[in-house]
Amino acid sequence: MTEFDSDVAWFCERPPIYLELLPLEGKRRPLDFWVRQRSGKQFGIVLHDVALARDKTCPLDLLKRSIKASKLKCEVWQPADIRSRKTYVRNLKELQPFIAMGQQSDDQLAASIVAHLERVKTASWSELMTVFASRFEGVVNTEIARLIHAGRIKANLGEHALASNTVLTLS
């Protein structure tokens, strides 16, 4: 979710930042991510799972107290949080290969897709594929995914699996 979030300017996985677990003297818990958003806001993310050995000795209330005492801005993500975002994460995984592709962006196609959505307001993924059928299908899919990633068009990634009927709108 962090990799695909268009509001994230950069992130670091396993930064060298630790929480002192209070009152357990000398015990520390590493952050899992450090994130900086485009707005400049920065915060840590701690994945907490009591099934993991490192978290068995660090109950959630202890972790939250330690975060508060550290004065670091941190979010705690638990397995239930991740499960509740299952569709969203699945959709991100579907889009990620298009985003990571080394192929150059087709700025003209991207501008045409945005212009089309300005005119019609909403369109399904398959409608855009039909409108731009003269282009190679993979290029159209790539530009749609990149526009979603850039925050220029929206798709409801949290409710339904990506499909030909996924509704796209301008952001």
Textual characterization of the structure:
The chain folds into two domains: 8-83, no CATH class; 85-170, Arc Repressor Mutant, subunit A, CATH 1.10.10. It is 41% helix and 22% strand. It contains seven helices and nine strands, in the order E-E-E-E-E-H-H-E-H-H-H-E-H-H-E-E. It has helices at 53-56, 60-70, 79-84, 86-100, 107-120, 125-131, 137-149; strands at 8-13, 18-20, 28-30, 33-37, 42-47, 74-77, 122-124, 153-155, 167-170. The strands form three sheets. Strands 1-4-5-6 form a four-stranded mixed β-sheet. It has a three-stranded antiparallel β-sheet with strand order 7-9-8. Strands 2-3 form a two-stranded antiparallel sheet. Helix 4 crosses helix 7. It is elongated and about 65 Å long. The model has no long low-confidence stretch (mean pLDDT 89).
The CATH level-2 architecture of the largest domain is identified as Orthogonal Bundle
CA radius of gyration: 20 Å
Outline: elongated
> Roughly what fraction of the amino acids lie in strands?
15-25%
What's the total helix number?
7
Side-by-side strand order of the widest sheet: 1-4-5-6
Structural class, from helix and strand content?
alpha+beta
Low-confidence stretches: none
What's the domain count?
2
The CATH topology label of the largest domain is Arc Repressor Mutant, subunit A
Q: Spell the H/E element sequence.
A: EEEEEHHEHHHEHHEE
Helix percent band: 40-55%
Question: What's the story with the biggest beta sheet?
Answer: 4 strands, mixed
> What is the straight-line distance between the termini?
18 Å
Task: Report the count of strand segments.
Answer: 9
Determine and state the CATH class of the largest domain. Mainly Alpha
